[in-house]
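Dear colleague,

Thank you for sharing your sequence with our group. We've completed the structure prediction you requested, and as agreed, I am returning the results in plain text so they can be pasted directly into your records. Please verify that the sequence below matches your submission; if there's any discrepancy, let me know and we will rerun it promptly.
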Amino acid sequence: MNIAVIYGGRSGEHEVSLVSAAAVARNIKNHNVILIGITFDGKWYLQSEDEYKRICADEKAALKIEEKQEKLVSIIPGANEKAFYVNGKPLSVDLVFPVVHGTFGEDGTLQGLLEMLSVPYVGCTVPASSITMDKEKTKIVLEQAGIKTVPFYCMRRSDIMDSVRYDAFLEEIVKEFGFPLFVKPCNAGSSNGAATAENLKQLSFAIMSAFNWDNKILIEKAVNAREVECSVTGNSYTAASDDDDESVTAYIPGEIVPKHKFYDYDAKYNDPDGAELLIPADLKEENIEKIRKVAVAAYKVLDLTGLSRIDFFIDRESGQLYLNEINTMPGFTQISMFPKMCEAAGLAFPELTELLIQQAVKLYKAKQALRTKL
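Please find the predicted structure tokens below.
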């Protein structure tokens, strides 16, 4: 198959995507890999075979995006494997492996475009991607399903337009939760715009900073917690009971022990010593299994497909387990937890990419079998 690895994108996680996509492309075996880079301004460019050879020759190399006008990619909706055109000629693409993190990639917008093109793609569907990108809506769905999340308030940009309303909002939050508090955008990733607040001054600053990234933010009760993550793969609503490829599988959970104040962008991607990664997590077997069980339940209730990394907090004082966030296109860098947890369970990187490709093909076939007209 011709597999198009799409990377870059219009988000604060653009640089992370360059590293993740390089790792994914290197580990796709027995298929022809095509590289398509999306610039910060949203233009798509086909990359040369030399770029693919370069990143394959160096396991630490990140992808680049060469912007040649004659390599500009255009698309034709509904054209299936001939949906992509470069310089007036069709570019045969059998399947897309999108490794675009954050906005315009992980939020359902790219998935919606690929649905319009009628091209199979790796990862979650449009509604699943859109809901899980919105941290408020994800919490609402999970709480409705009986899966506990960290207590929160959601603040919208309209709430800061009225000073009286804003002050009353802050007073209510502090009265309910006290300090410290944790502030983050509802629709952003990699800890972009996230901060802790120990007092009202820091809280106001954190709120304004978070609103630089989104028009809606979360203010959560800060939990003195251990951070545990769980990789999950599978097609939650199309898998047959005897289908090993599509069955929902939760892998061995890992624990993050940050050496920074919290596991921020620098600790995740820039500092190789920013955190200690423990796989498996230092937990009793029954707690390991509980996390895997909750991860699968969350994956299924949100109709997730392909892959996700599900992040948990364990309160150090009470032992309470909270589901913190769900990442439908987690990092694939050399120090990322998702592929490491899969590998610890015996699923090496090349086998992981092949599994995700086969799941995407089966999900596409299942969708194509559905009726769209009378």
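Summary note from our side: The CA atoms of residues 233 and 307 lie 4 Å apart.

Kind regards,
the structure core
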